[in-house]
Amino acid sequence: MESTLQQRIELLGEAINKWLAPDNYVLKEAIDRTVRDGFFSFEDIRYQLLALKKSLTAGEFRRWITRAGLKQHKPSNETVLCLHAGNIPLVGIQDILAVALSGKRYLGKLSRKDPWLPATLLQVLQNHELIHGKWTTHIDELAGEQAYAVLFSGSTDTAAPVLDLLEKKNIISANTPRLVRTAHFSMAFIEDEKPENLRQLTNAVFRYGGSGCRSVAMVVAPFSFNHIKCHLTDYIEEFWLRNPQHKKPPPSLFYRFAYNRAVGIEQSWLDHFLVEETSHKPDEPFVLHWVDGDRQDFIDLAWKYREGLQSVYSMDPGFDLPEELPKTEVLSEAQQPPIWWKPDGIDPLRWLEHCV
Predict the structure, then answer these.
(1) What are residue 147's phi and psi, to 5 degrees?
(2) Best CA proximity match to 218, nearest among 250, 262, 186
């Protein structure tokens, strides 16, 4: 790894430390404004920032560089357009840092559901000359720009119309390379009822109201939901006391509960969430699917629902799935992944290195 790239990594580590410093009142104001405007809860923002403080270090950046095969710093005016989602706080930070490490120009469309937090990071990176470009919450303000590549994170429902709009405004062309990530749920396999495992599972399911693509929406365990219902509910209530759920489910979820009761599906209505013992594909927010099964059942379901599946978790890091499926991760890292994790199985830094 050349010295210029090493220096950039060290400078990036310093910038992150300044951004996350207790005396960064710009970040503090962004947090307060985000909570005040009702975008996210303070508890979820705090959790995300603490997780980032652990993962955004010079050592982790070096590891990312090595995994991505980046060997030298190559400054470029080629513009990368990042379309950021707003389902959880600072969800687009990996794309921002990938552009910063790649040396390319950043063009950002920030989510109107999370406009303040990422802007504080971008300003610090710009002050340290680690990123150059512009960002906004309005696509119209990107008029006149020409992107050479696009990083998009969001739902399959929004991807096509947004990309079509960008083409109409001549910000991208039909041939512009684009990395579109649309996976929207994850699965977990647990084998026992140990308190630490159930606490990790609870965090993986209910953090951010279950709205992250790494959030667990289906659990496979060698015992029924009815067997563990009372025990698990205690951990969920414990979690909600410390982390009140910010987003509430729509009234229509109660109709699902009524239908399940009518057809005899084992379930539990938890005010803000529905847990049901079914193996249906996760297709609705605020629902956790519980499956009584073994490791082979877990693998079979991962195969069945691989379209839309982001991550798979287990308490056993040696539990390997077939190569075509996501690599098994430990459950404790479900909501605090390393900065070099691969959304939809693709490293954005490596992709930028080879596509533009």
Answers:
(1) -90, 140
(2) 186
| Burial bucket for residue 312 (CB in 10 Å: 0-12, 13-18, 19+) | buried
Tens digit of each residue's pLDDT (9 = 90 or more) over 156-189: 777 888 899 999 999 999 999 999 998 889 999 9
Q: Is the pLDDT of residue 317 over 90?
A: no
For residue 256, the SS3 value is helix
Q: Write the CA distances from 142 to 77, 110, 160, 205, 267, integer angstroms.
A: 16, 11, 18, 36, 48
Instruction: Report the percent of the chain where pLDDT is more than 90.
Output: 87
Closest by alpha carbon to 345, among 309, 299, 298, 303?
Answer: 309
Neighbour tally for 125: CB within 10 Å: 23
What is the identity of the amino acid at 195?
P
Taking the alpha carbons at both ends of the chain, their separation in whole angstroms is 20
Please state the rounded mean pLDDT for residues 325-344.
Answer: 95
CA–CA separation, 13 and 19 (whole Å): 10
Instruction: Say what the pLDDT of residue 1 is.
Output: 55
> Please, are residues 84 and 162 in contact by the beta-carbon 8 Å criterion?
no
Q: How far apart are CA 325 and CA 310, in angstroms?
A: 10
Tokens of 341: 């994790």
Higher pLDDT, 262 or 156: 262
Sort strands 149-153 and 178-181 into parallel, antiparallel or unpaired.
parallel
